[in-house]
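Subject: Sanity check before I submit

Could someone independently write out the structure tokens for this chain? I want to compare against mine line by line before I put it in a report. The sequence has 202 residues.
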Amino acid sequence: MKKSFVLRGSVIAFGAALLVSAGSAAMAEVEQDAEGVDVTVEIAPLAGPGALAMTIDGDSTALVEGESTDLERVFTGTLPKVTVSDTRAAEDVPADAAWYVVGTASNFHDEDGVSTIQASNLGWSPKLVAEEGEGEAFVDVGGDVAPSRPGVIDQDLLFLAESAEANAGGGVFSATADLDLVVPAAVPSGTYSSTITLSLFE
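---
Independent answer below. Compare away.
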């Protein structure tokens, strides 16, 4: 609670500072002259062995209700795009190695911390992104994981690639997944949150 109060205070103080600056500008003297200064920067090529790394396009996604029935409610969404980049030199890529990305979801909790939806109720259907791995023989996605069978709960595979082939093939590949949450119709209403932890291994 204390952290929230400090944050709001900072926002209010910033807004007040802007108002004061605007008032001062209105009373400023007439500008007599102005000159520009060019700014340049030289960015050298990366040096060193490069790296195998993962990035995610966004840190959140929202599920919306889909084709629910009298017995269960269904919510769907999309995992933000997950990209693996390999900037290593070919000789630095381990022989016969493969990299892979897995995901594990935590339980959903409502805002009050009273109600919980088990992570096993969440499933996903991984897929490669067009022009970023789709159709490449050395890149593949994990299988569909249905809600409650058993759900995305134990480092389920999103996608993988043979390291040497992927490095030679451009080194940048992406995947996403359709998300499905299925819960009983009697689930308590509220806003629930979960975290899918994505991990890159080689």
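---
OP: Matches mine. For the report I'm noting this point. Helices lie at 2-26, 163-168.
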